[in-house]
Amino acid sequence: MGRPGSHYGAETGGEAGSPRPGYPQGVDQGGSGFPRTYPQPTHPQPGTYPQAVHNVPATPVEKAPPVGKRRRWPIFVAITLVGLVLLGVAGWRIWIDGPKFASPSASQSAEVTPGPVLARLSGSGAPSGGTLAQQLEPLVLGSDLGKKVSVSVVDLRTGQVLYERDPANMVIPASNAKMVTAAAVLATRGPAYRITTRAVAGANPGEVVLIGAGDATLSADGEGYYVGAARLDHLAEQVKKALGDTKPTKVIFDGSLYSGPLLGPAWEADAHEEGFTSKITALMINGARVDTKDKMMPFDRYADPELAAAEAFAKALGLPANAVARGTAPAASPSGASAAAAGVQLGAVQSAPMLRQIEQMMGESDNTLAEALARQVAIAKGKPASFEGAGEAVEQVLTELGLPVGQFNLADGAGYSTQNQLSPAVLTGLLTRAADGKHPALADLFNVLPVAGWSGSMDYRFAKPDAAGGLGVVRAKSGTLRGVNSISGVVQTADGGLLAFAVLAENVPVWQYPAQDALDKIVARIATCGCG
Questions:
Q1: β-strand 421-422 against 207-211: which pairing, if any?
Q2: Which of 32, 278, 365, 478 is catalytic?
Q3: 490-523, pLDDT tens digit by residue?
């Protein structure tokens, strides 16, 4: 957890493993005390937002500690209704049974086929702009958030702005930047793309080169942290089979895909020292976590993630930990060359699809995974796989989507850097494009947003009576750094409308929890306004 006075707020501060007083356990893991939410492959939770045209099944979610049957049942109903409303937005196509994404050389539990989807709702109501402003203005101006609060509320069906307050003002977004990263990955890589980690023959007989491809979810074995991860022990089996009678003698590890600093710009020292994120390298296992059974922040992280991954691979090959060395993979050998020839591929394993990784990144507010995914955008756009290259690539995607130039500046993918800047209008504009039917790759963005009172980093939110109207009908990403609090996402209104919202606050004068309560109250009022 963040020590008292840490740069990081709710997403990184607090006492290790301690829930918010009076709330179920769980804090946005940009941060602290948030249990892992994506382990067991059980039946998908009801009310999951319908899948977009890419037909990638959503990762089943293990629920955080229950918050009471009386609270859960209404939330269950609300989530289901929100999902049904989304069926009517832009005439989205719904696929009942998606393809199976079994990783080559890695066994996975079979996907569970969801039940039939109910008929769509016909309601199209939304609050009128003037009336909604009357409801929200007192809450925004009189809240604990301070004087620098920027807001945008937009009708997803029509694109009409219903309420705004300094919507073009660029604010430090904290983990709301992860929504932009998620959208950029979907727009460039697509939801079904997988990262391939390869092993090739080295320059000398028995040498095996492990090439980092930027898969932060890579696992040493079946006890990994991430669901559906590629496994190094499976890769080792392929290598030994390909080598035949030649015994592995040494592992060379190549992490040259990434360039630049290992830690992001304007990250304070406790970002890595206290385990909120790892050093960002092209080769790592389990997001560089030392103990995969540890489900709450802070995580112990490897000092050298690439070395740790190489040692795990060496162990799987039957080699000692000292039989590893940093190096560069030889050039690929011509097709048909023998397994002993330098550069010949000896094996390959693939990650879970991008959509799966995005879900885990958004649900847990996983900073290391966010940075790895941002590098995928850089690679897809032909830019250096560095913090700077990733920021430029994501900004390029935003520009290509027609979002207002001059209202975003991205220094990292996770939102840890205080050099990041986003306007509320960019966030609601992104959500509007995800719903307009003209950008089908973005439609899955709705599927990865945690549900208020139900899942991920939003599980414990909207718990107070004056915010309970948001339970189950709000899907959102929160963001918190010291003095910065934000929330953005979508909400179903009492009139059956579906709105995008973004509320970003800087120079917040109060502690993280009163600030979060103020944000929840504002968003809940949007949900319950009934002023259409």
A1: unpaired
A2: 365
A3: 999 998 899 999 999 999 999 999 999 999 999 9
* 84 confidence band (pLDDT: 50, 70, 90): very low
Determine the number of helices (DSSP H) and then strands (DSSP E) in the chain: 11, 12
Q: For residue 240, indicate whether it is catalytic.
A: no
Calculate mean pLDDT across residues 2-27.
38
**Shared domain check, 270 and 173:** no
Tell whether 431 and 463 lie within a shared domain.
yes
Our answer to whether residue 178 is catalytic in this structure is yes
Q: What is the pLDDT of residues 128-137, one digit of tens each?
A: 767 899 999 9
Q: Are residues 328 and 361 in the same domain?
A: no
- Answer whether 379's CB lies under 8 Å from 385's CB: yes
Q: What is the mean pLDDT of the chain?
A: 82
pLDDT digits (tens, 9 = 90+) for 304-350: 999 999 999 999 999 999 999 999 999 987 777 776 799 999 999 99
Domain extent for 385: 69-191+356-528
DSSP assignment of 197-214 equals: EEEEE-SSTTEEEEE--S
Structural domain total, the chain:
2
Bridge-based pairing of strands 474-481 and 161-165 is unpaired
DSSP string, 291-329: -TT--SSSPPB-SSHHHHHHHHHHHHTT--TTSEEE--P
Given 103, 150, 152, 178, the catalytic residue: 178
**Against a cut of 0.90, is the pTM above it?**
no
365 is catalytic: yes
- Cα–Cα distance for residue pair 209/7, rounded to 1 Å: 40
Q: Which of 6, 143, 175, 457 is catalytic?
A: 175
Same structural domain, 226 and 291: yes
143's tokens: 């809240």
